[in-house]
Amino acid sequence: MAQMAAAERMQEQQRAAYEVALFENYLQVIVSVHKECWNPWDWRQIAAAAPPQPPVFSGRQEAAAQHALQTYEPSLTEKLFKQEVRRRQALTEDIERARQGDQAEHHMALQQHQQAMAQWQWYSRVAHGVLSHDLEAYRAVLDYLAPFDELSELGIVVSLDEVQPGGIVVTCAVRDQEIVPTEERRLTAAGKLSVKTIPAGRYWELYQDHVCSCALRVAREIFALLPVERVVVNVSTELLDVSTGHKGPMTILGVNFVRPTFERLNLDRLDPSNAMTNFVHRMSFKKTKGFSVIVPLTLVEGA
Length: 303
Known about the structure:
By secondary structure, the protein is an alpha+beta fold. It has helices spanning 2-30, 43-48, 60-70, 76-80, 84-131, 135-145, 200-225, 259-263, 272-275; strands at 157-164, 167-173, 183-187, 193-197, 230-241, 246-258, 280-283, 285-286, 290-291. It is built from 9 helices and 9 strands.
């Protein structure tokens, strides 16, 4: 009985440790959105890339079949049962099948080359457009590479508002504060699970870090893909509109990210909320109540 009780206590402690680990990992995820990103794109290298070479017809299957026929030596059994003629006929037919196989293989290679050529032409055209600050090329890059798709797993939706040669304005719609758990899980000294309500200050601090982390991630993705000097990110969420009595998208953070300053940040170690002080930004936040609605930032502000 004592052994069973000890085993049950061990299992309970393991379950508790697992729940705490899941909780802590989740918190880390929502405040570390900015730590992942595309690698920077070298559009000059892409523009200078040579086109893919067309495939060369090899005829390797037919050559192998021809060799098999030319080197054929009938076995004693084939001679005894007069199977040599039939065997040579079969080897001759193999040559035609091999020829057809070579043609099919080459046809597939031509199709693959055609696809590779189309891709090269697209990237080459877009690369030259990006290097000449063509706004349609900027849009094409963001649309085709879709750097924000991964963020949808956290309920984040990014929309392009304005594209200019020197900067881009986007809206980043995030989930409301419910993305932050209202209860925290910890292990007691005895290894048991303790569940308590997260204090209001800590709760809103986590949500603020999440919102600011999302803004950093969006700017980081755009700076990695496009040679723009500024990225304005306006973060919105669903809040109560007191004029209508209904919830709707309201802006709660606006940041004008500048490339030189952004590139000096240590994104793995910074505090997302504190990082906003490096840039022109607009945010009304109280630790006891959270965010208040603000007027979105524009490219003109902080230019």
